[in-house]
Design a protein that fits this description.
Length: 270
């Protein structure tokens, strides 16, 4: 009964099917953990949602920033961006069932000391705190106030989470950390300007995984395609899963039992 952790699909449905075939994946026996960003940028966002949802309990998903953007467009009044590939979902006859399912997905998966979020977990958050904060945000998305949150979700402030935050500032700090984090400073402030490789780090900032922790979780994350599945200089046990399929790289699954990585090449033209 292997469990596979899979990086960002971003609408790469053909590659996802090819990866499942390569894994000889059987939903009656095997399990998938998906690192979020199921949709957007690639041509098969609607098909990705349908494929993952059809796997039932065999597929566990954490929400990524593109998934939340879809929800914000559909239910929070946000604008569709020029590069978005969400129109098929928004026009689909099963749109509401897919959106309901997506909105019910958590922002963190945990099995013992193994944790998956879309963007990572900062060193200032212990495992229990990270799980509690993710659960708080999931509760908001499953509540009647979800629409209000999705309308107010966007923004770069506050730049770090603090326990004393309340209301939308608290929720925004949590969601930005879990779904948008790349570079941080020693106090946990997020940088939102640099999105490329490690050499793009602003002065005083470093990748979140290059800071030491007081505990030793195994952290699985996607979001950062420029890392090409590596975590150079990491001071924690961190596995980068986004290998840039939508940008012409590959789609990767990590066997959590053996540590083996299995990939299929991208079919996208960049």
């Amino acid at each position: 009964m292997p469990t596979y952790a899979v990086g960002d699909l971003q609408g790469c449905h053909e590659e996802f099917v090819a990866l499942l075939d390569k894994l000889s994946f059987d939903p009656r026996r095997d399990c998938l953990w998906l690192a979020g960003d199921l949709v957007n940028r690639g041509p098969g966002s609607l098909a990705c949602l349908r494929e993952v949802r059809a796997l039932g309990d065999a597929a566990q998903v954490v929400l990524g920033n593109h998934d939340l953007h879809l929800l914000a467009v559909a239910r929070g009044g946000a604008d569709v961006k020029r590069k978005d590939t969400l129109h098929d979902i928004l026009a689909a006859p099963d749109r509401e069932a897919l959106l309901d399912w997506l909105q019910s997905c958590p922002l963190l998966l945990r099995d013992g000391d193994t944790l998956m979020t879309h963007a990572g977990i900062p060193p200032q958050w212990g495992m229990a705190e990270a799980e509690a904060l993710a659960t708080e945000l999931t509760g908001c998305l499953r509540s009647e106030s979800a629409g209000t949150f999705l309308q107010q979700m966007y923004g770069n402030k506050p730049r770090r989470y603090r326990p004393g935050l309340h209301g939308i500032e608290r929720l925004r700090a949590i969601v930005n950390t879990l779904t948008r984090m790349r570079f941080i400073d020693a106090q946990g402030h997020l940088d939102f300007s640099a999105k490329e490789g490690l050499d793009s780090a602003p002065e005083g900032f470093a990748p979140w995984f290059q800071y030491s922790r007081n505990d030793d979780p195994w952290l699985l994350f996607g979001h950062w395609a420029a890392l090409c599945g590596t975590t150079p200089g990491s001071k924690v046990r961190a596995e980068a899963l986004d290998t840039g399929c939508v940008w012409g790289g590959c789609l990767t699954a990590l066997n959590l039992d053996s540590g083996e990585r299995i990939s299929v090449p991208s079919l996208q033209r960049t």
